[in-house]
Amino acid sequence: TNFTIKLANTGNDLSSYRLVIQDDLPELWSASIVTSDVNNPSIVSNLTPAMSDHPVTGNAHVSDVTLKVTTDPQAPADTMQPLTIRVEDRDTGELLSLNTLYIRVEESIDFILQPTNHTVDLSPYETPQTRVYINNTGNVATTFEIWLDNSQANDVDFTLESSNEVVVGPGYSESIKIRLTPDSEASADELHMTTLWVKAIGGMNLSASIVANVTADHHLTISAQDLIEVTPGVNRTIDVEFTNSGNLQEFLNVTAVIEGGWASTWDSDQMVLPIGGSLENDLTVVVPALGGNFSLSDGDTHNVTISLYHTNSGDFLSARTITLIVSPVFLVEFG
User: Contact 167/141 with Cβ under 8 angstroms?
Assistant: First the structure.
């Protein structure tokens, strides 16, 4: 804070002065003097005496001096702090006067929130608690009103577990507790966010954002007949249904591996499964003909492993094994 003080030469001669602030201020307080002398801001040079204004009353014998004061941020409101300025003769250093001013600390309402943005990781089956802290950086005990804006909460319920109104002393902190309760079907693809608002009574409003990062819950089901008969030399199409009961849309690569190295093809080897959605995808098995190097005796079995992988990361997600059984083939010869 800047104050203007006036230094008057009430003597009878042209004079120069040095202004010095006594070093008796509390810690975290600071003060400085600025005169019109840029090179020596504590010096007032060649100030004419009051009598030089005669016979007309004037201000030529007065110099405006700026006093800059910075208080301790936590100095209590209405503190009266004495500040003493020594006025010395610039040339001799002789003490000419001691002047004590009283600096009154005004009420200051100020605070910060920490953190202002943070993310909480949780599964659809967890209900974690998080905290945001009100730090009172003002100099007076302050009442704070607290509320949540859940307009972007989507599938997560954010609730306050602290009072809607708290009083925090200057220099102290108070935690605000928020409980996160996701819906059992909370989507990992959507944004789940609340905005915590804190209002200082008589002061400003601040906000902090809390994001619930719902972890991916992959629940993929592969449905197909367990045992399927095949005939040598005759391709077999198998109906396979894929269902997504997890909490995120799935981008999938689908594969099939058949024992014995049999070949196969899918109608589509890539799929996009929405949450709660199902898709049918036919698998065509190329059954070898008799007479080759494949095991095709009546009753021989060959396992088919159907697997799902994440399209982007390649991570394995789910698998299902079904069995192919070779049917008898009757050959009739005419002699």
Answer: yes
CB neighbours (10 Å) of residue 144? 21
Cα separation, 329 vs 308, whole angstroms: 34
Q: What is the pLDDT of residues 221-254, one digit of tens each?
A: 999 999 999 998 899 999 999 999 989 999 999 9
State how beta strands 117-122 and 205-214 pair. Answer: parallel
What does the pLDDT look like over 180-221, one tens digit per residue? Answer: 999 988 999 899 999 999 999 988 999 999 999 999 889 999
CB 63 within 8 A of CB 36: yes
Residues in the chain, total: 335
| Stated pTM of the model | 0.68
CB 166 within 8 A of CB 198: no
Contact 275, 236 (CB under 8 A): no
Q: For the chain, what is the total number of helices (H) and then of strands (E)?
A: 0, 25
